[in-house]
Amino acid sequence: MNTSSLSVARRPKVSVIIPVYNTEAYLSSCIDSLLAQSLADCEFIFINDGSCDGSADILERYRGQDQRISVIHQVNSGVSVARNAGLAAARGEFVGFVDGDDWAAPELFATLYAAAADCDVVFSGYIGSAGDRQRIHHDPFMTGVRMDQAYLREWVLPVFVESDSCNSVCNKLYRKEMIDVNGLSFSQSLALGEDGLFNMRFLCYARGGICLNYAGYYYREREGSATRQAEAVDYFARTLEVYQSPLPDDVTALLEEEKLEPLKLNKFVRSAISIIHVYYSASTPISFGQKYRYVHALLGQWLLREALERYKQLNEEKIGRYERFLIRLMQLRSPLGLYCITAYSNARNKG
Predict the structure, then answer these.
(1) Which letter, b or e, does each residue of 276-306 get, where b requires 16 or more Cβ atoms within 10 Å of its Cβ?
(2) 42-49 and 2-4 strand pairing
(3) What is the DSSP string of 124-159?
(4) Cα angle, residue 200 at apex, residues 199 and 205 outer, rounded to 5°
């Protein structure tokens, strides 16, 4: 592992950790957006995770132009290993994360840092960008009011156990001391959900947090990125692994099993529904026969079949007509029926 380090002696306010893997086409715009931050007192730690394109050359060129940039080169080991390498090198008071194909508004880290005075974690929104289309996403927490430790544990932590919607670490800021003191890192054993697990563990120790009604992180939604990988990546196997894996002890110590079980079950079933939509998407580059066989096998998984009935009981008064019909088709193990209803839903949403 070869590291080129910052020579700045004093501790920066924010360490920004950026894993990079074959993002040559977008990397310069990402770096330019970071160097343009209005909060100048930042360090930028890029981890080249064994890129095979020109990413490494771009990183080295920029490193020579700005002493706030450091570059770590490692063999391809995955995003969790890359982020952990960045955490080990980070010297900032706070830590933020950016992905190498995304970019940041000029005021992003100044805004997050200004809100972090008496908080250990700052939540914000993000902007999904796909071509000319942009959508703003916000975490479902009250905004502009400091949330104390009790509130974070009782109301915010369960959201991360139940849903993937807030998982990203890229629209948040974390106090580095809390990471170091509590030995927090990204799990290297999970192929899915490592962001969410990191957030859960951090929330077990955070003494206070705030959610801003602000979005300055731009997430590049490369069209079909999930559907293009559908043949190579078994998303349901990964989802099943997350469902069956025990949560860390620091999480289970705060949430009783009676509360954890329905939260994990809800995430499992909703993830399965999302996977069915991905596989039946018109942009998924596999044959209809392959899609049919995959969904058929998914529906036959006994843990999912058990979870579907329990899910209906838990959410009887919450689920709408479309979801109710979809759940019924899943229970009937009808891949063709699911294909028809998801095709109708996709066509209606496009219209």
Answers:
(1) bbbbbbeebeeeeeebbebbeebbeeeebee
(2) unpaired
(3) EEEEEEETTEEEEE--SS--SS-EEHHHIIIIIHHH
(4) 95
The DSSP 8-state label assigned to residue 39 in this structure reads -
Are the beta carbons of 272 and 239 closer than 8 angstroms?
yes
What distance, in Å, lies between the first and last C-alpha atoms of the chain? 51
Q: How is residue 125 written in tokens?
A: 């929104």
Beta bridge partners of 27: none
Contacts of 319 by beta carbon, 8 Å cutoff, 6+ apart: 312, 327
Contact predicate 103/29, CB 8 Å: yes
Quick one: 147 exposed, middle or buried, by C-beta within 10 A (0-12, 13-18, 19+)? Answer: buried
Contact 8, 21 (CB under 8 A): no
Give the predicted TM-score (pTM) of the model: 0.89
| pLDDT tens digits, one per residue of 244-294 | 988 999 999 999 888 999 999 999 999 999 999 988 887 777 889 999 999
Sign of the dihedral defined by the CA atoms of residues 251, 252, 256, 259, in that order:
positive
